[in-house]
């Protein structure tokens, strides 16, 4: 079931679990960043508590095969 996305920026629920999910899906921060159209510095900011636009969060969730609400505070 899809979750609606609010318009304010979102952050990760659990950065350590997010990193494990990235690896489980065959990515590293750099590769995931490239696949969603950003750079590894931005991905590092997100993991360290930085916020992102909802559409970027949606793209990440899609690449990791999870619902956006599974990994992001929405």
UniProtKB/TrEMBL annotation:
Q: Check the record and name the Gene3D superfamilies matching this protein.
A: lambda repressor-like DNA-binding domains (1.10.260.40)
- Note one Pfam family from the annotation: HTH_26
Q: Which CDD domains does its entry note?
A: HTH_XRE
Highest taxon of the lineage = Bacteria
Entries under PROSITE patterns matching the protein? HTH_CROC1 (PS50943)
Which residues does the UniProt record annotate as the domain HTH cro/C1-type? 18-71
Protein's name according to its UniProt entry:
HTH cro/C1-type domain-containing protein
Q: Which organism is it from?
A: Convivina praedatoris
- Taxonomic lineage of the native organism: Bacteria, Bacillati, Bacillota, Bacilli, Lactobacillales
